[in-house]
Amino acid sequence: xxxxxxxAMDLALILTFVSAGVLLNLTPxxxxxxxxxxxxxxxxxxxxxxxxxxxxxxxxxxxxxAIGISAALMAMPWAYDAIRYAGAxxxxxxxxxxWRGPGEIGQAKGATSLRRAAIRGFLTNMLNPKVALxxxxxxxxxxxxxxxxxxxxxxxxxxxxxATAFAVTAGYGAAAGLFGASLRRVSGVMNKxxxxxxxxxxxxxxxx
Length: 208
Description:
single chain; mainly alpha
């Protein structure tokens, strides 16, 4: 059924959507900053792992949009604020951890550390209500009633958007990890940079 919907979707519209998604992801935003911070403190693997979590979070918002939950949450200001405050608190927690000691995201290259980076990326994205608003406003513009159930189209578009988000964000995270490697060997300054970025993201989430 999903395949039928995909085949019925307009190819030109899909290409336009993918192109717009790539351009949007290339513009540095909160997700890019988060992946960059993870790459700086933990190496390229940490940046890529965090990007995978961010992409999964983006698809999670697409799922919520497809079933209407995001729209219901956005209609309740108190729910929007609760999610926003929870996201800011989580980012401040990460900032505190990064400032206090050696980076946990990628200093140790084991699976546990990389898994933690992915989980952090996922939670940070899912606890950002601005992402939910963006998904609700952006994805439905590229759906067509004649192509099949709208919820299926939103899920398909969500997969595409998450894939492009991962590719671009992982590039930023990996580059930050590679360029930060030499500094990370001689000092702990990268953890302080990471903490400042996380703190800035928390402030941005609270003020927007």
